[in-house]
Amino acid sequence: MTTQPLPTVGFVGLGSMGTGMTRNLQQAGYPLVVNDLRPSAASELVAGGASWAATAAEVASASDLVITMLPTPRHVADAVSGPGGILEGIADGGTWIDMSTSVPEVANAVRASTESRGLHILDAPVSGMSVGAAKGMLQIFVGGEAADVARLRPVFEAMGDPERILHVGAHGTGYAVKLMINQLWFSHLVATAEVLAVGVSAGVDLGVLRDALVASPANSNFVEHDVLSILEHGDYDEGFALALACKDLGLSIDLARSVGISVELSAIVEQVYRRARNSQGDRAGEMAPFALYEQMVGGPMRLGTAEEVTTR
Length: 312
Fold this sequence. Notes:
Layout: E1 9-12, H1 16-27, E2 32-35, H2 43-47, E3 51-52, H3 56-61, E4 65-68, H4 73-81, H5 86-89, E5 95-98, H6 104-113, E6 120-123, E7 126-127, H7 129-135, E8 138-143, H8 146-159, E9 160-169, H9 173-201, H10 206-214, H11 221-226, H12 228-231, H13 242-258, H14 264-280, H15 289-297
Parallel strand pairs: 1-2, 1-4, 2-3, 4-5, 5-6, 8-9
Antiparallel strand pairs: 7-8
């Protein structure tokens, strides 16, 4: 029996997420054609057999399918529709998968402008941060035609956890699911920081308070697991920059506005994040807003160390 060769995957965007994703594609045997604003970002991949392309158009012309993993909707639009973009190189009937955290408008505009070309376009944003990207264990939320999702599942499985690759609906729903996940996670962070700050200021031991929350109906994955990176290690997750977190919050609120839903709580969370960005800078970690509440209690909130704040 003759084994069909794996398709050549074009990949545009080799940041903290794209680097891990492309390494796993390469390890799974997929031929790669890659592009990034920084040619140096591709050096390891090229050494492993990937081809470098000077433009997104060259990536598309040399690939069977193209993936974008870029910081903002504007970057996605430029890479796809701008000069030297994917649309200049992709063949009629070709496939473009946007795995960025973006909004439906960009892909919708591409679909509208290329209706006669028969392109297969999917939105497939991810969760799992750079650690999940490096380990090939991302969650992937795919919006698009069911037949396309089935056809491309092996590609997704090279980058993500097979049990958590979800076809969430029609075009645009992948973007929406990812934005809602981010919005809720950021809200959990602000709410948890606020609750812990009030509790320790009222004289409750930090560890006792967290244990009580974990044992209560108010428990969440964030309280039980995620916040420990701060409480135990002082790690505010610089793997995902605060500037990008603020971008995602803004996109989430824009989405809510576009569908006519009022989101007062989300707007407050966005304000807290922007205040943290103003005080700590774009490169601070996505959990940096927690430090705003630590400032109010007079020092770091840590479990089991001399720095632990228990009363103020």
